[in-house]
Every structure is written in structure tokens, then in C-alpha cells.
Amino acid sequence: MFDTVTTVLEWFGLCIFSVTGALVASRKQMDITGFALLGCVTGLGGGTFRDLVLGLTPVSWVEHPSYIMATLIVACLTFFFAHIPQSRYQYLLWFDAVGLALFAVVGAERALNASNDPIIAVAMGVASAAFGGILRDIIGQEEPVVLSREIYITAALAGAVVFVALVRLGVPREIAVGLGFCTGLILRGAGLIWGLSFPRYQPRPGRPIGKP
């Protein structure tokens, strides 16, 4: 049962991230090939990075070509319907928030199964959640959302930590997945709605050499 839930979440996250990539393509007024490229890179990038680091070969989309077909279909459909939202950037941010929370949990789950190390699982959860979006923004020449002032990476980290901690405490995985996902989404959503962020470094004059 849990394997089914995890698979559904991974498919949903894959499609969500593909939409965010395609919406960036729409902002850049790309052709349908550009939509397909950004959709695939965003949807598959995080999972590919995770699988390669963990030594899981072949990577998920090579083993299951239906993953890449799904991202292509979603991206191409977005080409025809991206004009519907009045503010595509806001939709992109919220789709990205859902994908971030989903992939943080799914990535941590896959890594936990592969290594059984909670630290590695959390790190791979964060990488799965963020890497596809980073590639999307670099290729689309957007300011990387990972550098936004609002809470972003922290949301993925919190979601992965909550999931892994609950699993290690013996909480049923279905509950751990739900709470991990909700934690990541609520934190990222709070950042989007209220502009929440942690204190940032403020530059200040350095001290002259030899003086206290």
C-alpha cells in the first residue's frame, strides 16, 4: 500500500515540477521544444541527481521511460494552456512549493531505503527537491528561486527531517509522508504569503590588521 502511495506522490511531483519548467518557458516565450526541454529538466533533474549520488543505476527515468514521456506530455500541454493564468509567476511559485514539499519527502524515502542513513536521507531529500528547480532557473535565465529571500531550502530541509525522524521513531510511513509533506508546504507557503525569511548576513566594515 505504501509503495503505491509513494509512487503516486512521485508521479504527482514529477508533473508539478514539469509544469513549473514549462511556465518558465512561457515567460521566456519559447517554442514547444523549449517547453519540453525545461519541463523534462525540471521534472527529472532532482531525481537524476539523487540516483546518481546514491549509485542507483539505472536512474529512475532510464529504468521507467514513462517518466520522461509524462514530463514531455505535461510540458507540451502547458504550451497550449499557459496563457490561462493571469499571473503565471505566482502559479509557478505555488506549483514549485508543492513540488518542493513532495520531492523532499519522496527523495528522503528513496535515500533512506538505499542507505538507511538518516543524514544521507535528509541531504538527498533536499537535493531532490531543489536541484530540478535550480537547473530550470539557470537554463531559463531566471533568478534562481533557491536564492529568494523567502524560506525555500529550509522548507525542504524541514520536510525531509520531519519525515526521516518520524520513520526512525517507528511512526507509520503513511503518516510520516503526510506530516513531512505538510511541514515543507506550510513553511514554503508561509514564506510566499507573508514573506517570512531568516535573518540575513549584513556586510560591515572590517577591522584594521593589528587592532582589536
UniProtKB/TrEMBL annotation:
Spans traversing the lipid bilayer: 6-25, 32-53, 65-84, 91-112, 118-139, 151-169, 175-197
GO cellular component, one term: plasma membrane
UniProt xrefs under InterPro entries: Gly_transporter
Keywords: Cell membrane, Membrane, Transmembrane, Transmembrane helix
Pfam families to which the protein is assigned, alphabetical: Gly_transporter
Keyword Cell membrane: yes
Entry membrane topology: Multi-pass membrane protein
Compartments it resides in: Cell membrane
Annotated ranges, domain Glycine transporter: 8-82, 93-166
Family stated for the protein in its record: Belongs to the UPF0126 family.
Protein name: Uncharacterized membrane protein YeiH
